[in-house]
Design brief:
about 15% strand; about 270 residues; 11 strands; 7 helices; alpha+beta; single chain; about 30% helix
Length: about 270
């Protein structure tokens, strides 16, 4: 039986793509439907920032955001910013506080450094080279992207086996920054620690979690509250891209880990 048969348990429209090191292995559902990526956009923004880092346009130690913060703090949700405002909860580097505003501010910093609109930078340096023909960018670097699962699969494949980044910068993108920080994981409560990369979530020892329970602690990716998600397990060399027609809910929390386990069992 297909690992993706578990999609039927959601009770609403779903689709998914499984990627191995050679490319697509399995798909199910409408993978061409344009879906809001919401916070999955942050992974795209992290990659855009990493490209600017690779070209020497920015440094992770650049001063950016609230006093004492750097571009690294912003991209790793450690700047102290509130969720969606420039007010701060605490000084930078003390706690992992998930912040859309912080990611947007990171994109504005990159935008100034490269001298062009960040959405144009993403289109020209990521979407066009990867062939993401259906990507739609609506302004917010934290939640503004939409696209088909086939486009998200192209992003996942790039993060799985980078062609745009060298290995050192890719390791910065998907590795953990400020590894000791505690924080609230949206939808899953307090996590101690709560690891993140640069605009990308890292699983670590988080429990409960939305990725496979049998996967590597190095698994990374992102989910969006409108029901789109992807993860990459670098040890299994597998990726899963999922889209649903329902906002992230209890069905996602319960089925997504089992779906991940089924994919790993079938394809590892």
């Amino acid at each position: 039986m297909s690992a993706l048969a578990l999609l039927d348990e959601f009770g609403f429209e779903t689709a998914a793509i499984v990627l191995g090191p050679e490319g697509e292995r399995e798909r199910r559902g409408d993978v061409e439907r344009i879906r809001p990526w919401r916070s999955v956009t942050k992974a795209l923004t992290g990659l855009g920032a990493a490209l600017a880092l690779q070209e020497g346009r920015v440094s992770l130690d650049d001063e950016a955001g609230p006093p004492g913060a750097t571009l690294r703090h912003l991209l790793a949700h450690a700047s102290g910013y509130f969720y969606e405002s420039d007010a701060t909860l605490q000084a930078p580097g003390l706690r992992r506080h998930y912040s859309n505003y912080g990611i947007d501010e990171a994109a504005r910093h990159v935008e100034r450094a490269v001298g062009r609109d960040f959405g144009d930078w993403v289109q020209e340096r990521i979407a066009d080279p990867l062939g993401m023909t259906g990507l739609e960018w609506e302004g917010s670097a934290s939640v503004g992207a939409s696209g088909a699962l086939v486009d998200l699969a192209l992003l996942a494949a790039e993060l799985q086996h980078p062609t745009l980044l060298d290995q050192e910068v890719h390791a910065q993108l998907v590795g953990v920054h400020f590894p000791e920080l505690v924080g609230i994981m949206p939808g899953f409560g307090k996590q101690d620690p709560n690891p993140f990369g640069l605009g990308i979530e890292v699983r670590g020892t988080k429990s409960p979690h939305w990725t496979a329970t049998t996967g590597s602690e190095r698994t990374y990716g992102h989910f969006g509250m409108r029901g789109t998600a992807f993860w990459i397990d670098p040890e299994a060399d597998l990726a899963l891209v999922v889209g649903t027609s329902h906002d992230f809910c209890d069905a996602h929390r319960e089925i997504m880990p089992r779906l991940g386990d089924a994919v790993l069992a079938a394809h590892r």
